[in-house]
Write a structure and sequence with these properties.
The protein is an alpha/beta fold. Helices cover about 40% and strands about 15% of the residues.
């Protein structure tokens, strides 16, 4: 089990205050890593870090800002001396303010360019900048692991039928930005794995499936029927995969996309 140990490793998780971000932090800390929980609100990130224990750090970051990321890099290196793991988890998944209008606003024909641009800036440019600024430390060290969080929707197209209720009403469409940006993340992973392979930096993608989080019952049932395991994921279902990709257990793995989706993409 020593292969899975993250003792003496420093791991940065962006989007650390979200549903899965908190679980990623918990898993890495449990494996022995010192975790830097990074999110827009430093106070909330500090709460996440405090729950993990005294040695961990919460830090504010805007993943679309080079200066913000450089500040994070400098603070982390000053505090710990190195960076060993980066989990690029921060992302935007479209939410529409008025649920009654979501069905119309989420249609491709009506989808606003501003929402497309915002998602691209965070989901793709954010991953690019975090990898450039924080991953650059790993390249200088000659070792490190970058884990880019994508989605099954970066592998296959959304099934719009799962957003249709029992009455046949299309309550929502999965809009284009999330699937397209997550597909780009998978492509970027391959590029960076090839580019930094000779620097000892491994770069892999984790593509999770949908997580149960208070959705409508009809949606959960529709989603479950699409998976071989017959259910949506629990927030803890990706913790083993995160530790695996961060640790020496995956030492000969780079440029890969680890799909953990209950069998959604198997058929």
């Amino acid at each position: 089990m020593d292969y899975f140990s993250l003792e003496d490793k420093v791991a940065i998780v962006t989007g650390a205050c979200g549903l899965l971000g908190t679980k990623h932090c918990e898993a890495l800390a449990a494996a022995g890593a010192t975790v830097v929980a990074a999110d827009l609100d430093e106070k909330v990130a500090g709460v996440v870090a405090a729950r993990l224990g005294e040695r961990h750090m919460g830090i504010g970051v805007d993943v679309t800002s080079v200066t913000s990321l450089q500040s994070v890099r400098d603070r982390v290196v000053k505090a710990y001396g190195h960076i060993d793991v980066l989990v690029n988890n921060a992302a935007i998944n479209d939410m529409f303010e008025n649920p009654l209008l979501a069905g119309q606003q989420s249609m491709f024909e009506n989808y606003p360019l501003e929402m497309w641009d915002r998602s691209w800036k965070v989901n793709v440019s954010g991953v690019f900048l975090c990898s450039q600024v924080l991953g650059g430390v790993m390249a200088g060290q000659g070792a490190g692991s970058i884990i880019n969080i994508a989605s099954t929707y970066g592998v296959v197209a959304p099934d719009q039928g799962i957003y249709r209720n029992a009455a046949g009403e299309q309550t929502f469409y999965k809009s284009p930005a999330y699937p397209v940006t997550k597909s780009a993340v998978i492509g970027f992973t391959k590029f960076l794995a090839a580019y930094w392979g000779n620097k000892g930096v491994r770069v892999n993608t984790l593509s999770p499936g949908g997580v149960e989080n208070g959705q409508d019952e009809f949606f959960k049932a529709n989603y479950a029927r699409k998976t071989l395991l017959g259910r949506m994921a629990e927030p803890t279902d990706y913790q083993g995969a995160i530790v695996f990709l961060a640790s020496d257990a995956s030492a000969y793995m780079t440029g890969a996309n680890l799909i953990v989706d209950g069998g959604w993409t198997a058929i």
